[in-house]
Design a protein that fits this description.
Blueprint lengths: L1 E4 L5 H17 L10 E2 L8 H8 L13 E8 L3 E10 L6 E10 L2 H20 L4 E7 L4 H7 L3 E12 L16 E2 L5 H11 L2 H7 L3 H7 L14 E6 L3 E8 L7 E7 L4 H12 L6 E7 L3 H9 L3 E12 L29 H11 L8
Parallel strand pairs: 5-6, 11-12
Antiparallel strand pairs: 1-3, 2-5, 3-4, 4-5, 6-13, 7-12, 7-13, 8-9, 9-10, 10-11
Length: 366
């Protein structure tokens, strides 16, 4: 079995393999996450569109000419392509790659192809300067064990919450309900400090050890795109930033998206922030991704009609960085050990000694 770069001639087989997996899950009535044809990161066909829109776990196969993507196939001499893996550079993170797809056929060939694809991806990523790889996989999916065996570590469980109130009366988006105000660029440091206060230390140490890393990785890099796209950032102060909200309007391919971060000591404040955040969105489908330690926010959204649409594990693997030591221009000569003594001394000190001896006064005649 060989692992190689995918070419345009392989796209037909790759798409066929992906469609067969999705069709088997839909028609065979298998347990969500299990496939009669093979393994796929998506548990149910019904989750495909939302899963892609929210977490990028499933990617529409983009053209290979896109330099931001890496697509490799496992090819068996007898059966042809038996699996593929697809990854891309994480948004605003040059040293991180996000795995979008890992799909293999069932049977022994697919079983052996999956770890080889992951190993090859890691090697290629390191050659391009990447040392961190992460993937979002549905809870209890068969691929979870494979990723753990390959050195991935779980550091968060994410809940995808979804609500569709398209039948609701039209409303005018307010200015934040008096508690939220538009964020300014100088608020980013305060939002980062809020993140550190509301996030377990072991997660923050990995995901956001610095403000720059946090802006690049948190919520798919939304903070890093401040003022650059259609994401609207708002904050609540009381005093100091105690809540951060980001909203993104819907498109034809995805629902409206919302991100929340709020201190949990004040329940009344939390409820006010959520109501003000929802008031930023027009009626329609909206989704929000929260983590297991945001349980209070999850319960508050459920009270407002949100349902947990899916759960996924955020798995990360860090590889050791290669460090090149500078080459020594010339080898240093080894020092030579000699016996100590005046007779073997060299340099100016010897001449000084001889001069001292010759100019010393002679002893008086007896």
């Amino acid at each position: 079995m060989i692992i190689r770069n995918a070419s345009f001639r392989d796209l037909g087989r790759i798409e066929q393999l992906h469609r067969e997996t999705a069709a088997a899950e839909e028609n065979a009535g298998v347990v969500p996450g299990l496939s009669a044809t093979g393994d796929s990161p998506v548990p149910q066909t019904a989750l495909v569109r939302l899963w892609y829109a929210v977490s990028k776990s499933l990617s529409a196969l983009v053209p290979i000419a896109d330099q931001g993507d890496a697509l490799y196939v496992a090819e068996d001499p007898e059966h042809g392509i038996v699996g593929f893996i697809q990854a891309q550079k994480a948004p605003a993170q040059t040293r991180s790659w996000q795995i979008l797809n890992l799909c293999v056929i069932s049977g022994s060939r697919g079983h052996f192809a999956a770890p080889q694809l992951l190993t090859h991806l890691a090697a290629q990523g390191m050659e391009h300067g990447a040392h961190r790889f992460f993937v979002r996989v549905p809870v209890e999916h068969p691929l979870v064990g494979l990723f753990l065996e390959q050195g991935f570590t779980q550091y968060a469980t994410e809940q995808i919450l979804f609500r569709d109130d398209s039948g609701g009366a039209p409303r005018v988006v307010d200015n934040g309900g008096g508690i939220l105000r538009p964020a300014r660029r100088e608020d980013l440091i305060a939002a980062y400090l809020l993140y550190l206060r509301t996030t377990p230390s072991h997660v923050a140490h990995l995901e956001g050890p610095t403000q720059k890393a946090w802006q690049a990785g948190f919520q798919q890099g939304w903070p890093a795109r401040f003022g650059k796209d259609d994401v609207r950032h708002l904050v609540a102060e009381r005093p100091g930033v105690v809540a951060w909200v980001a909203t993104r309007p819907p498109s034809q391919a995805r629902p409206a998206l919302m991100a929340l971060m709020c201190e949990g000591q004040d329940a009344e404040l939390r409820e006010e922030v959520i109501d003000a955040a929802l008031a930023q969105l027009h009626p329609g489908p909206v989704s929000c991704v929260l983590r297991h330690y945001d349980s209070e926010l999850i319960r508050s959204l459920q009270k407002r009609g949100f349902e947990i649409y899916g759960s996924q594990l955020l798995l990360v693997r860090d590889l050791a960085l290669k460090v090149r030591l500078p080459a020594v221009a010339a080898k240093k000569k080894k020092g030579v050990l000699i016996h100590a003594g005046l007779a073997r001394s060299t340099g100016p000190s010897v001449h000084h000694l001889e001069a001292s001896l010759s100019t010393s006064p002679s002893p008086p005649p007896t």
